[in-house]
Structures are given as C-alpha cells and as structure tokens.
C-alpha cells in the first residue's frame, strides 16, 4: 500500500505555505471534498500521496476536521500512515527563536487537567485520559535531519497545545516550569494527535515560530517570517516524509 500522509494546518495561510513547499517536488493532484465542508488539497510524490487540510483553530475544531479526513480515507481504503500538525507557533524564549522551526518529540495538552490549591493536576493523575503523545525518535530524527540538511534552524522538543494563547510572563514561566522540555506552544497539535491515534496513524507536529511565548506584544509578531520558514520546511521534508515508517505515538 502506498505511504499516505495528511498535513493539517489551522488556517489557509499556513496551508498555502505548506503547499508552496510541497510543489517544489510533489505534483498537485487537485482537490477533494471532505464531509463537514472541508477540502483536501492533494499532492503526489514518488513514494505516495500527501494531502493538506485546513482544519480550523484550536484543538476541538482541528480534531473534528482531522477525524473527518481520516474517516473519509479509511472508507476509501486509502488510510493515512502519518498525520502532521503544521503551522505557526509561539516559541519559548531561549529554546525556539523567531523564524526557527520546532519538530515535536512530544505533543502535550498543557491545560487538560484540574487546577487545585496545590497546583495543576494533569488528567493522568486525575485517573482518566491522557495529555501527552510522545513522538518516536524514528519520526522526529529523520525530520530533524532533513531540516539540518536544508540548513534550516530548528529545535526538537515538546510542543504544547493550549486553548488560550499565553500573554503574560507569569503564565509563560508556569508552563516552562511544568514542561521543561517544551520548545513551543500552539493550539492544534493535541487535537490532531488524538484523531490520528484513534485511527492508528503516527503523528508529528511541525511548527514555525512567529512570536515568543510571553507578554503579549503584537508588534513583535513575525508571521511572514514564520510562514516562509514553514514553506522551506515543507520543501525540505518531501523526500524525508516519503521514507518515514508509520509508527503510532505512545
Ligand atoms: O492576540 C494575541 O495576543 C495572539 C498571540 C499569538 C497568537 C495569536 C493567534 O490568534 C494565533 C493563533 C494561531 O496561531 C498559532 N499560534 C501562533 N502563536 C501562538 C502562541 O504564541 N500561542 C498559541 N498559539 C499560537 C495557533 O496554533 C493558532 O492556530 C494571538
């Protein structure tokens, strides 16, 4: 069975960057509707197909969209082996500078738990659910190597999924202390990961840093630079994506 990959972004600008990078090596294969008013943009490579989906902002919207795309693929007997959550993100200062890339070694729901007088308690400690998808080295390693080969600055680390963008130093410090391996925060990775895991697909998160995690400073955002980096990463990854083994996260 050919290797099939689904790349999920939150918004169209991110999907445009990914598509721009893919088309340096992959052939456009048209568009396909997905139930729920979604559209897949399709690309063909020598090793299999890559589909790009705009799944919406936030973990709930993107999980629903990713689930719809995965279900369509399963019903069509063309399941995805790998799902990639891609887009812009906030980078933790000192770990992921503006314009650089982050490859996930873990995808973490940073606020899926309970606040208690003793502090935050993740769902695992409450006795239900999970808040972490660990990404195997077999996925993270080749992707990071492809970015190195293309000369693209990157960090390998945890990517936090939040429902509220961090806007204060106190919140940034609390997240960094609770998740010392975190390199970036965004709003979709965990939703994509939950949908992928439900279908037995491997999952990876790839982020380009548009802003620092910390006090809100809209003037300091570098969304254009991040979208340019995302495009370069997509181009660099086409050969690597086709060689990755399908390994679900743990
Ligand atoms: O209004 C603000 O202060 C603000 C700051 C950063 C980002 C936003 C967004 O609405 C973008 C959300 C969108 O982009 C991803 N993203 C980018 N930077 C971050 C971040 O620092 N923390 C969380 N998400 C971020 C996210 O995945 C969404 O798709 C607003």
UniProtKB/TrEMBL annotation:
<protein>
    <recommendedName>
        <fullName>Futalosine hydrolase</fullName>
        <ecNumber>3.2.2.26</ecNumber>
    </recommendedName>
</protein>
<comment type="function">
    <text>Catalyzes the hydrolysis of futalosine (FL) to dehypoxanthine futalosine (DHFL) and hypoxanthine, a step in the biosynthesis of menaquinone (MK, vitamin K2).</text>
</comment>
<feature type="domain" description="Nucleoside phosphorylase">
    <location>
        <begin position="45"/>
        <end position="238"/>
    </location>
</feature>
<keyword id="KW-0378">Hydrolase</keyword>
<dbReference type="Pfam" id="PF01048">
    <property type="entry name" value="PNP_UDP_1"/>
</dbReference>
<dbReference type="InterPro" id="IPR000845">
    <property type="entry name" value="Nucleoside_phosphorylase_d"/>
</dbReference>
<keyword id="KW-0474">Menaquinone biosynthesis</keyword>
<comment type="similarity">
    <text>Belongs to the PNP/UDP phosphorylase family. Futalosine hydrolase subfamily.</text>
</comment>
<dbReference type="InterPro" id="IPR035994">
    <property type="entry name" value="Nucleoside_phosphorylase_sf"/>
</dbReference>
<dbReference type="InterPro" id="IPR019963">
    <property type="entry name" value="FL_hydrolase_MqnB"/>
</dbReference>
<comment type="pathway">
    <text>Quinol/quinone metabolism; menaquinone biosynthesis.</text>
</comment>
<dbReference type="GO" id="GO:0016787">
    <property type="term" value="F:hydrolase activity"/>
</dbReference>
């Amino acid at each position: 069975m050919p290797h099939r990959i689904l790349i999920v972004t939150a918004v169209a600008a991110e999907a445009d960057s990914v598509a721009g990078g893919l088309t340096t090596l992959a052939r456009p294969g048209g568009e396909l509707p997905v139930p729920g008013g979604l559209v897949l943009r399709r690309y063909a490579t020598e090793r299999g197909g890559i589909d790009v989906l705009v799944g919406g902002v936030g973990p709930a919207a993107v999980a629903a969209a990713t689930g719809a795309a995965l279900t369509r693929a399963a019903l069509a007997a063309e399941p995805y082996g790998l799902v990639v959550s891609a887009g812009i993100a906030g980078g933790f200062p000192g770990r992921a500078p503006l314009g650089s890339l982050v490859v996930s070694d873990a995808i973490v729901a940073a606020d899926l738990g309970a606040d208690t007088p003793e502090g935050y308690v993740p769902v695992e400690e409450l006795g239900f659910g999970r808040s972490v998808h660990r990404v195997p080295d077999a996925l993270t390693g080749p992707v990071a190597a492809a970015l190195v080969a293309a000369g693209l600055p990157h960090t390998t680390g945890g990517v936090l999924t939040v429902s509220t963008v961090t806007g204060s130093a106190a919140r940034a410090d609390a997240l960094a202390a609770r998740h010392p391996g975190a390199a970036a925060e965004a709003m979709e990775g965990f939703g994509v990961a939950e949908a992928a895991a439900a279908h037995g697909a491997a999952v990876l998160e790839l982020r380009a840093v548009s802003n620092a995690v910390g006090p809100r400073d809209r003037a300091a955002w570098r969304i254009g630079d991040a979208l340019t980096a995302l495009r370069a990463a997509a181009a660099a990854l086409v050969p690597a994506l086709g060689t990755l083994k399908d390994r679900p996260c743990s």
